[in-house]
Every structure is written in C-alpha cells, then in structure tokens.
Amino acid sequence: MKQTKPQDFTEEQYQTSQVFKALAHPARVAIIEYLLSVDTCICGDIVDVLPLAQPTVSRHLKELKNAGLIKGTIEGNTICYCIDENMIGQLINYFENISAKLNLKNQSCC
Amino acid sequence: MKQTKPQDFTEEQYQTSQVFKALAHPARVAIIEYLLSVDTCICGDIVDVLPLAQPTVSRHLKELKNAGLIKGTIEGNTICYCIDENMIGQLINYFENISAKLNLKNQSCC
DNA sequence: ATTCTTTATCGTAATATTGCAATATAGAAA
DNA sequence: TTTCTATATTGCAATATTACGATAAAGAAT
Fold first, then answer.
1. B31-79 pLDDT per residue, tens
2. Phi-psi region of B8 (alpha: psi -120 to 50; beta: other; left: phi over 0)
3. Protein CB footprint (7 Å) on chain D nucleotides
4. Whole-model pTM?
5. Which in A67, B13, B83, B109 has the greatest CB count within 10 A?
C-alpha cells in the first residue's frame, strides 16, 4: 500500500482525522459513554464493564488519551480517567463551523 | 484476531463509531472541507484537488456516503456530492449532550 | 454506432488495527 | 522485604483498511 503521507494533507487535517480515529471503535465510544455515566472514573471499573480483556482496554484508553479525548490522573494505585472537556468543546466548534458555513452556502445543488 | 462482535456493544455505539470512522482519515476530512469550500460540488473536482488516484477518491466518497455524511445526486454525467446537514446536526447534538452531562457532573476528580 | 468523459468496482499488495496471553511495572498492604 | 492489586507493554496472529492499476459501466458528444 502506498501510504498516505502526512504531508499529502495539512497538518490540521491529519490531526483532525486522528481525533475521529480515536472514536472510530465501539469500545472507545463505550468507554466515553461510561466515563460520562459515572462521577468517579477508575480504570478498573471500565475493564469490568467492557467485554474485553484488560490489556485491550488499556490500549483503547491509551488511544483516547493520545487523541486528547480523556485525561488520566494517577491516584495512588489506580488511575482516574476523565473526559477532557476542552476537546469536546473543540469538536463542538468544528461541527458548528461546518454547520455555519453550510448555511451561508448557495443551496441550489443537492 | 477475535473480532469485536457488534453484539458486544449497543447498536447505537456501533453506529456512532461508524460515523467517526468515516472521518478517521485525512483524505476524508479533506473531502469534507473541500465540499464546504465550494458552492457546486462535482466529484471530478475532488479528484483534481486530492493527491490520490481516482479509484481511491471514489472509495473515500463511498465511505462518507455510507456513513451519511455526504449525499450524492446523479447529475447527467457527473455526480454532485454535498455534505448532509442533518448528520452534522446530529454530531453537534452528540457532543453538546456530552458537554451538558459533563457540566452536571461532580467535578471533584481529575 | 462510436468515442469520450466520469465514476464505480475488482484484484491485489502493503500497512494498520485489534485482540489476547504473557509479562513488566509500580504503588499499597502485609 | 514480600505479596497483592492495578495498569501498561510486548509479542504475536487475525482482520481491516488503504492504495493503485486495470477494467467496467453509463450517459454525453460526435
């Protein structure tokens, strides 16, 4: 496969796709939704809730963290994972911006 | 690889991840942004703008269409692809909902 | 009817992702 | 220190994704 090189697109487009890639798996969507449903967020809970082995959950958490969607704070023996509000705000802005531009467009086509 | 079966997660989580998967590639982000930047949207233009071969662009367009992010109208010899405003609205709702729930949460952790 | 133009599909090769078992790491508890 | 508990990393195997060339399909133009 001739790899799509990062320089083929803008750095911003590349990073945007990376954030969406982090959400492009049902397990990671489930993690986000689980984190949202509890007040305290300990990783151990997540392993119990998901139908996946611990190393697999750990890997999914790492990807969400790398994308900036969650942040993890070491809390003694456990790690407290939480959704990063800032990134959620950025995503809202991203789609709000698309929506605003669509409203300005000539809607003659489609 | 033991596949993650759809029934391991909710149907909704699965479908949500599919929409994000459609945006999880810089080429597809670039396509969305290009469609946003022009009033008339013909596929031929997209092939010229992207650093990818025509069959590859066609495939990316298909994935965006399958995810409901764009819609294509056959217009004689060409196809007019446009962003589906409805899906953008759904995505705004998705993240607004997350944001609202975060604001209600006990922020003692993280 | 033939040719051109545009888009889609197929075949195949390369790379990326996902999953789990095994193992490592590191702080807590004993 | 030794052991327990929680999380991360590594090593592989299986599957999915991506890319392009070749080709098909279908309407437009001649």
1. 999 999 986 677 778 999 999 999 999 999 999 999 999 998 887 778 8
2. alpha
3. 5-11, 13-23, 26-28
4. 0.92
5. B83
